[in-house]
Amino acid sequence: MNLFEKFGAGLPLGAFLAKYGTDAHRARWAAARAQTVLSDDDKALLARFTRRTNVLVLAGAWCGDCSAQCPIFERFAEAAPVLVTRYLDRDEHADVQAALQINGGNRVPVAVFFSEDGHEVARYGERTLARYRHMVAQLTGEGCATGLVKGDDPVRRAEVRDWLNEFERVQWVLRLSPRLRRLHGD
Questions:
Q1: What does the alpha-carbon distance between residue 173 and residue 161 come to, in Å, rounded to a whole number?
Q2: In sequence order, what DSSP letters do the residues of 120-147 get, joined into one string?
Q3: CATH number of the domain that 59 lies in?
Q4: Do residues 51 and 82 make contact, with C-beta atoms less than 8 angstroms apart?
Q5: What is the three-class DSSP state of 11?
Q6: C-alpha pair distances (Å), 55 with each of 86, 108, 182
Q7: What is the pTM of this model?
Q8: N- to C-terminal Cα distance for the chain?
Q9: How far is CA 10 from the centre of its chain?
Q10: Which residues constitute the domain of residue 110?
Q11: Percentage of residues in the chain having pLDDT higher than 90
Q12: Around Cβ 38, how many Cβ atoms within 10 Å?
């Protein structure tokens, strides 16, 4: 399956939440966004991004992991307008869900990164290493996160860093691509 063909069917976050979310879902996503703060160093790094990066995110408005993590992507895009995110609902796009299963299961969020001309660069999801480390340390807790984000949570800061590392890795893959360097003359 060519997943980039699905990018056009994806929605910007606001439209995605308007279509698939309830007021309670939208409030949870808004709270997570408010709690997502980028450091000056993060913003400086993102400002160096020059290659358009199309990011297709398979998500669910109801999903706690999605509501906790996807607002991170929106903060990145605010600081780096070359990042273009689009969201697909997991249940409405079962074919994409089947293509993006993790460990044999339907998991969200999953981000698929594409070059400006539709070549797949990377996939990442559904939880970051920082979140898994936290969950292993707890060895208790929920099977699906609630999506509630607390103020100055060190795990949250690490989760933002994990996602930023992946976005940065993709940007440098694109920036150093001989094909794209020839195209852009740089």
A1: 18
A2: EEEEEESS-HHHHHHHHHH--S-SS---
A3: 3.40.30.10
A4: yes
A5: strand
A6: 6, 14, 23
A7: 0.88
A8: 32
A9: 13
A10: 3-184
A11: 83
A12: 17
* Triad 129, 134, 168: Cα angle to 5°: 25
- Identify residue 143 by its one-letter amino acid code: G
Label residue 82 exposed, middle or buried (CB < 10 Å: 0-12, 13-18, 19+).
Answer: middle
CA atoms within 13 A on the CB side of 75: 24
**What tokens appear for 45 in the block?**
């790094």
Q: Which residue has the tokens 């993060």?
A: 42
**Number of other CB atoms surrounding residue 177 within 10 Å:** 16
State the residue for tokens 């509630």.
Answer: 148
**Total domains in the fold of the chain:** 1
Of 147, 82, 158, 69, nearest to 113 (Cα)? 82
Query: Do you know the residue count of the chain?
Result: 186
Tens of pLDDT, residue by residue over 35-60, are 999 999 999 999 999 999 999 999 99
